[in-house]
Amino acid sequence: MRTGFPEPSACPDGAQLLARWESLLRKAPRLRPWVGEMLGQQRVRLVARLEGEAPLAIERTLWEELARWLREFEALPQFAVSAIATTLEAGERDSRDGRAPAGAEEAVLAGSAIPSPERAVSEVEALLSDPAFALAFHCVEVRVRPRLAGALEALPSLSRVPEAAWFGLLHSSAPARPLLTPDVAVALVLRVLGAEWMSLPAESRKAALRLFAANSSELRGAAQLDRLCRALPPAWGVLPEGAPDFAAVSAQARLALGDASRLCNRIAASVTSARRGPGRGGFALLEVNDAAPAAPQELEELSQTARKFVGMAGFRRLLALLR
Amino acid sequence: MVPLDVAATWTRMLSVTAGAPAAIGAPGPATRIRGKAALSWIEGPWLGILDFQGVKRCEREVLDPWLSEHAEPLLLVRHLLLSKPLVDDVFIDLTPQAREAMPEGWRDAPRPVLILAPAGRSRPERRREYLVALSQLRIPLVAGGSELWAIREFDVELLLALAQLADPAERAAFRAALDPSQTRLFDQQLPAARAAVLDDLVGARDEEGAVAADLDGLSSLHPNAHPLALYSAVERAHNRRRAEKERTQFSARTIEARLSARGFPEPGGPCTPAFAQRACAIEPLLPGDLQRLFDADELLAFRGGD
């Protein structure tokens, strides 16, 4: 078992880690050759990288790697570890590449999405560099934002509810679809622009969604309204007497989303009718529901947004497709 | 190989990594209900059945090897054991990897079954075929009846693209066809897109919404009821409130209600004060939400008394 393993004295937890590895390898003996091979490869790399360092430094680094792999394997169900071992035994390419086993790597990748402002900005940029999503962004910009702002202007009691929350609510209430449609593209842009919504506590989001979906008549004298409003983020300052206003803005926001999706559909129809074949780019995916092409004034509106967001690569590509 | 539309695939990859779902429908093993993965209700992996009816032969030739060599182990670690993909007849035949990896005794008891159907490719009557076949199968695995099976629809074109991009030559050609400013992004997005699609197949990225909120609520009232059973009641209660045209896509036992002509229209009784007290003790509910939850609760109880 210890063949290839680093020197236990190099790590304070070496003996304990070794015992845990022994226990794991008893359950999944097919992992054994993979571990040996990985340790060999890592050792060669470390010797090259840490040339001149004390040998114990290499041993210590190997223990760190072993501890990390162990945590990943121990977190997996037994049948999954066996499955990975089976795959590895069959000469799975990932082990040849000297990377973690396929399953473990993906499992870690899937769970490692740590939100950060930099990541959010990069995601928005990546998404909006695509013409289909630049179009969806335009539709949010000219249909959702102005109507929402107009509705909120008339109801100052809701001025503390951030725009991102409305976007998040619109996205969460839109029906989920497994294919890309104009509705999905618009909802996705709302999701990205309303990323802040996801930082709210789950209970607050749920309460807001309940209120967002309600119609005004439901709110009159509702016994639970006080509790529902208390579950909203306190910073929003929404009181039970302001709940009908919340419902009114929600209704406007939903109408705006419908308008935005239809506009997206029409402009997508203009792109797809102008271009057949591969020139349509990502628009080939947008299912256009027999929409009439966009009106000239709608295309002019698009040009205006493109001029406003001149640095957005997606708009340049979109306009080129429409030419 | 199937010709790959680079721009379309790239658009789809970007959308999925930004959060658009590549599969939706009933809960999967990783869908979280009341903060817990659906997997935790019954110990052991779920059975996944990919339905390739409607998928072209040339597409299957790409998907089949990729599934067994690449995707299946990654679905195994996501608690989904696969049966061989369906083409026409609905039957269950575990893959060799699933047979080897399944826990002892797993096949001898009812297990949650997730049918993964290609979105936009299935015929409407296919759902009836699932129902008939799974009702007639006399194996312990499906003895839970429709209580324990449901459907998730997935984007088969994206799956196909990912399968092709697993091939180094295809990947290099795709990369070369991209705008040079996006090649580095592609290198980052490809593994992320693959992980996202696999996560979507098992429900790991399912997001909140009205159905999810009701599912949480009903689960709080019936903590031991399996998420698939709860989902079917919630889905049916939501369908009652939809226009006839919108009541076409069912993922759970609602299919059964519809096909048995017991289904629609389904008048529900008024919410009782006792139920209102019980439900509102858990979370504040407006009258419309409360009535919908009551309907779902009644449907669940009705099924329990079958």
Q: Quick recap of the structure?
A:
Chain A has 323 residues and is mainly alpha-helical.
Approximate strand percentage of chain B:
5-15%
Counted beta strands of chain A: 0
Coarse structural class of chain A? mainly alpha
Biggest beta-sheet profile of chain A: none
Tell me the number of strands of chain B. 7
N-C termini distance of chain A: 67 Å
Give the overall form of chain A. extended
Task: Describe the structure in your own words.
The complex is a heterodimer of chains A (323) and B (306). With 323 residues, chain A is mainly alpha-helical. Chain A folds into two domains: 8-74, no CATH class; 100-322, no CATH class. Chain A is built from 16 helices and no strands. The longest helix of chain A has 32 residues, at 243-274. The radius of gyration of chain A is 27 Å and the shape is extended. The model of chain A is unreliable at 89-115 (pLDDT under 50). With 306 residues, chain B is of the alpha/beta class. Chain B has two domains: 6-201, no CATH class; 210-302, no CATH class. Helix content of chain B is 49%, strand content 9%. Chain B has twelve helices and seven strands. Chain B has helices at 6-17, 57-76, 96-101, 126-136, 156-165, 168-177, 183-202, 210-221, 227-240, 254-259, 273-282, 287-304; strands at 23-25, 32-33, 36-37, 46-50, 80-82, 113-118, 149-154. Chain B has a five-stranded mixed sheet. In chain B, strands 2-3 form a two-stranded antiparallel ribbon. In chain B, strand 6, helix 4 (126-136) and strand 7 (149-154) form a beta-alpha-beta unit. In chain B, helix 5 crosses helix 7, helix 8 (210-221) crosses helix 9 and helix 9 crosses helix 12. Chain B is globular and about 65 Å long. At the A-B interface, helix 4, helix 6, helix 7, helix 10 and helix 11 of A face helix 1, strand 1, helix 2, helix 3 and helix 7 of B.
